[in-house]
Amino acid sequence: MAARAARQQSGSVKRFTIYHDIFMMPNSLRKPSASKISWRLKNKVVIFMKGIPEEPRCGFSNAVVQVLRMHGVTYDAHDVLKDEELRQGIKDFSNWPTIPQVFINGDFVGGCDILLEMHKNGELIEELKKAGITSALLEKEESSQSGVNKSKE
């Protein structure tokens, strides 16, 4: 019985040591490389968020999804809650501490607050134009203005 208990203890210690060693690795060994993140930025608009667009798991991610939806933007979304290495890696890659993160044409734009501000002041429409994307809000504005001009004629 004592021998069996000793084997169980040594087995437990060994398993703990392996577990501990994996999670105590230097961050540089656990984080995804820049190339693993860069390939995710291949599309014009990419967001790293908590959850998925159909089911955001935080209010900030939901706000980003709603803004992009208003603009009619097609984008790639990556759920950082499914991959802790991606979650930390994207923060290191962009040098930005929070999620969600928005990229346009591979360039980091910002998080929720910055995207909301850009939406309010019209800068988001301009950034989307630079990427070759016409905002649905701009299209609505142009069509409503042409309707006003026709009624004045």
TrEMBL record:
<keyword id="KW-0411">Iron-sulfur</keyword>
<dbReference type="Pfam" id="PF00462">
    <property type="entry name" value="Glutaredoxin"/>
</dbReference>
<feature type="domain" description="Glutaredoxin">
    <location>
        <begin position="45"/>
        <end position="109"/>
    </location>
</feature>
<dbReference type="GO" id="GO:0005759">
    <property type="term" value="C:mitochondrial matrix"/>
</dbReference>
<dbReference type="GO" id="GO:0046872">
    <property type="term" value="F:metal ion binding"/>
</dbReference>
<dbReference type="InterPro" id="IPR002109">
    <property type="entry name" value="Glutaredoxin"/>
</dbReference>
<keyword id="KW-0676">Redox-active center</keyword>
<dbReference type="InterPro" id="IPR004480">
    <property type="entry name" value="Monothiol_GRX-rel"/>
</dbReference>
<dbReference type="InterPro" id="IPR033658">
    <property type="entry name" value="GRX_PICOT-like"/>
</dbReference>
<keyword id="KW-0479">Metal-binding</keyword>
<dbReference type="GO" id="GO:0051537">
    <property type="term" value="F:2 iron, 2 sulfur cluster binding"/>
</dbReference>
<dbReference type="InterPro" id="IPR036249">
    <property type="entry name" value="Thioredoxin-like_sf"/>
</dbReference>
<keyword id="KW-0001">2Fe-2S</keyword>
<protein>
    <recommendedName>
        <fullName>Glutaredoxin-related protein 5, mitochondrial</fullName>
    </recommendedName>
</protein>
<keyword id="KW-0408">Iron</keyword>
